[in-house]
Amino acid sequence: MAEEVNKLLSERVYGYIKENNLSILGEPLPNVDKQPQIDFDTMEEFDFLFDIALAPEFKAEVAATDKVDYYTVDVTDEMVDNQIKSYTQRNGKYDQVDAYQENDMLKGLLAELDEAGNTKEGGIQVEGAVMMPSYMKSEAQKAILQQQK
User: What predicted TM-score, i.e. pTM, was given to this entire model?
Assistant: First the structure.
C-alpha cells in the first residue's frame, strides 16, 4: 500500500506543478517538521506536506545599444590534446595497482590513524574517497600514499 501511495503522491505533486506552471528549484521535499504521523495499517486518508522552492522571476533585457564581447579562439593541437587527456582522466576506470602515476586519481578507504600508525578506533573513516596526489601541497602526505598498498 505504501508503494502505491508513494506512486500516486509523486504523480499528483508533479501534476500540480505542471498544471499550475510552477517554476521550481530542485525537487519537492517532504516537510518532516509539520508532517503528521502516518499509519498505513489504520488510516484511510492521508495528508502529505511538501516544501517547494519557487524559482524567482526576472527579466533580462538587451537593448540594441548594449555591447557584448565576442571572442575568436584559435584552437591549437595542444589544446585539443589537453582536453582529450582531461576527458580520459575523468571518464577512465579504476584499476588496482601497486603504484600510481603522477596524475592518477586514487580511490579507497581513508582512515584516521593513531600515533602508532594503526586505524584509530572510533576515528574518521571515508570509504570510496577519491583524491589526486598531484594536487597535494605536502610532499610528506604524498609520500604516505606511496607507502600504502
Answer: 0.38
